[in-house]
Amino acid sequence: WADTQFGMMRATLKAQWKRPLMRLATCGRLVLPPLLEAAPEARKGGGRVIDPALYELTPEALDALEVALASMAVEAINAMDPKPAFVVVCGDLINAYPTQRDENEAQVKEFKAVFSGLRPDVELVCVCGNHDIGERPTPETLGRWRRDFGRDYFSFRVGPDKFIVLNSQLYKNGSGAAKEAEAQDRWLDQELKAGPESRFTVIFSHVPPFIDDPLEPSGYFPLERETRLRLLDRALQGGCSHWFAGHYHRNAGGTYYGRGGKGGARQ
Predict the structure, then answer these.
(1) CB neighbours of 238 closer than 8 A, spacing ≥ 6?
(2) Quick one: which of 73, 82, 118, 216 is 20 to 30 A from 48 by CA?
(3) Biggest alpha carbon distance in the chain?
């Protein structure tokens, strides 16, 4: 899955005060629903009943709710039979940016505490997102990610299949870490050259190349259009069949058939 984003509910609660101001500033023409709403009843899932008190709109209750929901996911994974070969979180493990050092470190600790509950025979694959390394990553923020979670781009195999993990933020805005961005791009070329030897070659990233249409405009959520098309062409030529990402906080996807419309790689 993607965007576990520990600390996001607390941050969202802080932002709720802006919504009544929007209504006031537009003389009542713009009425936005609350970003968070309290739920009076207990919720069930994964064999666990969540205490209704956790749905109270206080920072402490929302922190505890995030932990409870993530723990339910860990329990569900542990109960899977047959077990998965691995579990991947496609970026934004936490909400606080690297510049928010104290909050960032506390949320990293919380993430690790919850996911340490995964059964030991299931690997956890962590992909870095913009909240993890910053909107404009630097050697310092990349170094902190590597210290806490390991490499920011790498590949691995499971049987006949190959999986490529990208640091998509270096493609979104690599200006603060140009050498690292160039090194990843050269490395990706080498990885894709070996792709056709695999049964399936799959890419994981945080930022998706596109949301619904490979030719859609550039924007906050997808990669810049020309960057996206260059990467998709290379992935298709390298035998990539699927690309999984996060960042959008909703389900989306489509198929890239190449600029000539033949072949196909599914996002």
Answers:
(1) 191, 192, 193, 195, 196, 201
(2) 82
(3) 62
Is there a contact between 204 and 163 (Cβ–Cβ < 8 Å)? Answer: yes
Q: Is the pLDDT of residue 80 over 80?
A: yes
Predicted confidence band of residue 244 (pLDDT cuts 50, 70, 90): very high
Q: Are 102 and 140 in contact (CB under 8 A)?
A: no
Q: Are 84 and 77 in contact (CB under 8 A)?
A: yes
Q: pLDDT category, 12, cuts 50, 70, 90?
A: confident
Average pLDDT over residues 156-163: 96
Q: Which residue has the tokens 């936490």?
A: 94
User: Rounded to whole angstroms, how far apart are CA atoms 25 and 34?
Assistant: 17
- Res 40: pLDDT: 45
H-helix or E-strand spanning residue 49: strand 48-50
Query: What is the mean predicted confidence (pLDDT) over 233-237?
Result: 94
| The two three-digit tokens of residue 11, written as one number | 């941050």
pLDDT at residue 24 in the model: 54
Q: What angle do CA 138, 238, 146 make, to 5 degrees?
A: 25
Cα angle, residue 186 at apex, residues 191 and 143 outer, rounded to 5°:
100
Which has the higher per-residue pLDDT, 267 or 146?
A: 146
Q: Quickly list H helices, the chain.
A: 8-15, 18-25, 59-78, 101-115, 130-133, 139-149, 169-172, 178-193, 225-237
DSSP letters spanning 185-234: HHHHHHHHHTGGGSS-EEEE-SS-S-SS-TTSPP-SSSPPHHHHHHHHHH
Does the global pTM surpass 0.90?
A: no
Cβ atoms of 88 and 242 closer than 8 Å:
no
pLDDT of the residue at 153 = 98
